[in-house]
Write a structure and sequence with these properties.
The chain is an alpha+beta fold. It has helices at residues 2-16, 23-28, 30-43, 47-53, 63-72, 140-143, 153-178, 185-193, 239-258; strands at 79-90, 98-107, 111-120, 127-136, 194-202, 208-217, 220-224, 231-237. β1 (79-90) and β2 form a beta hairpin.
């Protein structure tokens, strides 16, 4: 029930901030439509309309050549599929609305690229702050798939550590909850539920990051950047869980010795 309530709260929050949570909602958003319009106009070599939409800061010599180069990188095939990659809209008092959006386009069956843009202004009247395309050797869902194939020893080490940290935290949490007469039990439960100092690996490229100030629930986390970005696997040191289990073990030995 708690998970259902949490999921419902997250959905309400996302809807409240206007973030699209389905592919259909993403493709219908003004930001995704603006990016698709840029891609379509590049394909049609309609550089004049794009130049007219550029932010004045980008209106400089050589912009036409840059647009032509970008257009030449787009496959001469119809778009068969669009996948959301990233979507972020910032609305601040006294400042123009700014949107950063990226989408993966499939051309035909075997050509893919990611188009990203930073836009400013109100929907349906966006100015282009930046625009970029990147060709892909495969769809991002395949490039960033969570798989064990071809992974290094470091990947396996992180996976084992994340599972172990979670299991230790769960075992300690359950034992603590069932322990009768424990003083400040709720503090122990909070301490056990959190893991400290995060170790994170980018599952796609193996890059490792350590954050000594971070903490995670049940000493692990598994999430990805955006809709199609790389998976990030994190484990933390279950300090509270280990402390409680050692304390419990020591108490059991003392009882056995006294008996």
């Amino acid at each position: 029930m708690n998970r259902l309530l949490y999921a419902f709260a997250v959905c309400v929050a996302l809807l409240g901030c206007g973030m699209p949570i389905t592919p259909e909602a993403f493709n219908a958003s003004p930001e995704a439509i603006a990016v698709r319009s840029i891609v379509d106009r590049l394909t049609a070599k309609d550089f004049a309309s794009i130049e007219a939409q550029l932010d004045p800061a980008l209106a400089q010599a050589g912009i036409r050549a840059a647009l032509e180069k970008t257009a030449n990188a787009i496959p001469a095939l119809p778009v068969s599929k669009v996948e959301a990659v990233a979507w972020n809209v910032l609305v601040a008092t006294g400042r123009p609305r700014t949107a950063t959006v990226a989408a993966e386009y499939t051309f035909g069956q075997k050509q893919w690229l990611v188009a990203s843009a930073q836009l400013t202004g109100e929907p349906n009247a966006y100015r282009i702050l930046s625009f970029n395309i990147e060709s892909l050797p495969a769809p991002m869902s395949q490039i960033h798939a969570f798989t064990l194939s071809g992974k290094s020893a470091t990947h396996y080490l992180f996976l084992v550590a994340a599972v172990a940290a979670t299991l230790v935290s769960l075992v300690a949490f359950v034992r603590c909850a069932r322990t009768k007469g424990l003083r400040r039990k709720w503090l122990w439960l909070v301490f056990i539920a959190l893991g400290f100092v995060s170790f994170t690996i980018n599952w796609s490229n193996g890059a490792v990051n350590i954050n000594p100030l971070a903490f995670n629930l049940l000493s692990a986390a598994f999430m990805r950047h955006g809709w199609l970005g790389p998976w990030m696997l994190t484990f933390c040191i279950p300090v509270g869980a280990i402390w409680f289990l050692l304390r419990q073990r020591s108490a059991a030995k003392n009882v056995a010795a006294a008996g």
